[in-house]
Design goal:
The chain has 184 residues and is α/β, with parallel strands linked by helices. The chain has three helices and nine strands; from the N terminus they run E-H-E-H-E-E-E-H-E-E-E-E. 20% of the residues lie in helices and 28% in strands. Helix 1 crosses helix 2. The protein starts with 13 loop residues before the first strand and ends with a strand. 29% of the residues are buried. It binds inosinic acid (IMP) and magnesium ion.
């Protein structure tokens, strides 16, 4: 168990699930695969904030192509670990996507609702293709037919934090993936 508690902060302890070297090795593999698949294509990576940030920063440095990056934000969890019914997708995206190959970068896919809504909205801009890469996937929680093209790791139906993922906006800076231990 790794405690992240600091004086003056109310953080619950976490338990490491996927360590940093393992994440980085897998991210490098994904980068290689994407490099091969998108060779000769006009690639725009669209990150879903905020959960994508650490993953995307590492991933793009393993893709040896002249890609561009763009961001949008999606909020489906407003607080805690319980899903909120409303999903907001926002973000001014000055990069035109028409006729280009779009790869959506997510930190984690759970029900797939966020990914489905984003893919739907991006299709309206008439890109050549839209695919999804996610660091983590919870296949047991899928509630939509959204297909994820690239997955770093499949995990069970548990709430995880770190490497960009939060619990009430905290823990994004953990360099590893961890489960939060529910001590109240
Ligand atoms: P979905 O729309 O159900 O696929 O939920 C995806 C979004 O929920 C992600 O982009 C995260 O913001 C959040 N989420 C789902 N599971 C987790 C988790 O285990 N840890 C942190 N955030 C999560
Ligand atoms: Mg979140």
């Amino acid at each position: 168990m790794t405690s992240t508690s600091k004086k003056g902060f109310d953080l619950r302890p976490v338990e490491k699930l996927i360590d940093s070297p393992k994440i980085l090795a897998r991210v490098a593999e994904l980068g290689g695969q994407i490099t091969r698949d998108y060779h000769g294509k006009d690639l725009v990576m669209v990150g879903v904030l905020k959960g994508c940030m650490v993953f995307m920063a590492d991933l793009i440095r393993h893709i040896n192509l002249p890609l561009e990056v763009e961001f949008l934000s999606a909020a489906s969890y407003t607080r805690g670990t319980t899903p909120n019914e409303t999903l907001e997708v926002a973000g001014p995206r000055p990069i035109a996507l028409k006729g280009r190959h779009v790869l959506v970068v997510e930190g984690i896919v759970e029900t797939g609702r966020t990914a489905r809504e984003i893919v739907k909205q991006l299709h309206a801009e008439e890109p050549a293709s839209v695919e999804i890469v996610t660091l983590l996937d919870k296949p047991g929680a899928h509630r939509t037919g959204t297909s994820v093209r690239y997955t770093g790791f499949s995990i069970g139906n548990e709430f995880v934090v770190g490497y960009g993922l939060d619990n009430t906006q905290k823990y994004r800076n953990l360099p590893f993936i961890a489960r939060v231990i529910d001590v109240r």
